[in-house]
Structure formats: structure tokens, C-alpha cells
């Protein structure tokens, strides 16, 4: 988790350097909040139609019945706004990467299908394209919906049971599909 702290420091360094930009927005993804994943994004205006969104997500929890979905992820995204930044339609290109420790969980879309019987620890990285729309609610508040599709490569160690199992094997998984889903509440700093 030291690399997560280092990544967060780098993200906040970029935020600090860029505060002189014309617009900065701070946001939280309500979908991640619903899964008990702490998240924070900062979006920085670069030009009249380009922004850079820097997102960090972290879930440190183990749940009852030995369910575990610990992970962290960083997801920077360059955005091109079709009209003006922070308003309306945008297209994005994002990178993503992080680490995970998952066991005794059932995930949709066939992602790590045997996590109900095994525990997986590893890291992943990927790339994707996104589309989104932002609605202005007031002078400083907005709501945003976005969806991204792309590719993820995951590397893992597989263990016998969710909690205490013996190491079984090392493996890799390729995934092509949704790489981002967000409904975000945004506060714009002017």
C-alpha cells in the first residue's frame, strides 16, 4: 500500500501545482461511495475545451463471512469537451492501475469468476475511452454521468480459500469491457 500513498501524493502535487488554472473541480463518484470505496477526483481546466481528471479510489475493508474486496486504483483521464469545459458532453481517454486482494465475492460480467471459492491478490493496469455528460446544478455544483470501455490486464496470485488458504498458482487475466462507471457530485472551485 506504500505505492498507493505515493500515487496519492503525486496526484495532490499536480492539484497543488494546477490551482492557478482557471477552473478546478473536486468530485466524488456516488457509485463508488455505494460500494464503500473512498474516492476523490480533481479535474483541472487546461484549455477552453480540455481538462485533466485525476481520480483516486481506495477500499480497505473486509466484510462479514470472510468477504474481502480490498483495492486501490488511480485513473487519470484527459477530456475533450464538445462545447465548453465543465458543461455538457465530453469524450475522454483514461489510464488505470491499482492493486487488489479479493476473496469470497461474486462479481458481475464474469470478472474473476472463482472469487467465491478462492482469494486473489495482484495488480492491474489498463486503458479506455469514455463518454460523459455534465449538468450544471448551480454556479458551483454539478452532476456528471460517464461510462468508459477499454482493456485491463490483471496479474494475480491465487490462494485456496478466502481467508487463510495455501498459495495455488500465479496467473494473468485479460478483460475487455467497462473500465469506468460514474455518477459524480461535483463542486467547482473558481
Automatic annotation (TrEMBL):
Signal sequence segment: 1-21
Pfam families: DUF3575 (PF12099)
InterPro entries cross-referenced by the UniProt entry: Autotransporte_beta_dom_sf (IPR036709), DUF3575 (IPR021958)
Keyword list, A-Z: Signal
Name of this chain's protein: DUF3575 domain-containing protein
The species this protein was found in: Bacteroides intestinalis
Amino acid at each position: 500500500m506504500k505505492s498507493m500513498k505515493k500515487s496519492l501524493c503525486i496526484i495532490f502535487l499536480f492539484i497543488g501545482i494546477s490551482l492557478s488554472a482557471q477552473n478546478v473541480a473536486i468530485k466524488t463518484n456516488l457509485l463508488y461511495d455505494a460500494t464503500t470505496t473512498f474516492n476523490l477526483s480533481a479535474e483541472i481546466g487546461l484549455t477552453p475545451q480540455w481538462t485533466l481528471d485525476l481520480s483516486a479510489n481506495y477500499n480497505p475493508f473486509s466484510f462479514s463471512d470472510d468477504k474481502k474486496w480490498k483495492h486501490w486504483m488511480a485513473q487519470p483521464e484527459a477530456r475533450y469537451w464538445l462545447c465548453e469545459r465543465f458543461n455538457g458532453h465530453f469524450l475522454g481517454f483514461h489510464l488505470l492501475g491499482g492493486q487488489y486482494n479479493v476473496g469470497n465475492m461474486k462479481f458481475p460480467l464474469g470478472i474473476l469468476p472463482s472469487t467465491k471459492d478462492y482469494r486473489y491478490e495482484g495488480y492491474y493496469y489498463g486503458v479506455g475511452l469514455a463518454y460523459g455528460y455534465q449538468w450544471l446544478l448551480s454556479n458551483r455544483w454539478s452532476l456528471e454521468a460517464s461510462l468508459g470501455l477499454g482493456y485491463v490486464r490483471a496479474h494475480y496470485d491465487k490462494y485456496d480459500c478466502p481467508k487463510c488458504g495455501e498459495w495455488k498458482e500465479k496467473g494473468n487475466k485479460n478483460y475487455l469491457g467497462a473500465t469506468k462507471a460514474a455518477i459524480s457530485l461535483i463542486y467547482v472551485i473558481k
